[in-house]
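B., you asked whether I could sanity-check this one before it goes into the benchmark set. Here's the sequence:
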Amino acid sequence: MPEEILSLPVAGTGVVSDGEVVVQSTDGKTVSAVTGATNTKFGVVVFQHVGKSGKNALGKEAYQAKDCAPVMQIGSIWVKPSAPVIDINAKVYVRTANPTAQAPLGSLSSAALDSTELPNASWETITGPDGLAILR
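And here's what the prediction gave me:
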């Protein structure tokens, strides 16, 4: 199965962590945290031990502006959905509006509420409330 992992600089004032969904800028040269419903080109930050100069809200290493993040746009990757995935045929959505503590902006789920469909994506596994699922 083909994979496409791009190394792209992080833009904006926020930080992005391993496994989080990011949005690619319209010129394709940077990525940033998901901030609203106008986002159209998404990717997932791939886990890597190097290159992080920031910290997220939990104090863990994260990518901040000008760091170069590895972003998967094609391929399969383990992710933590914000809600259980009970059907691998369900569509994949990215939360792009009205964030909550359980479903922050950029979180993945099989529910369309306050979300944008992730084009050409599918779930490869189901998961329970606190589990991981394979996103393709």
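One thing to flag: The mean pLDDT is 92. Otherwise nothing jumped out at me.
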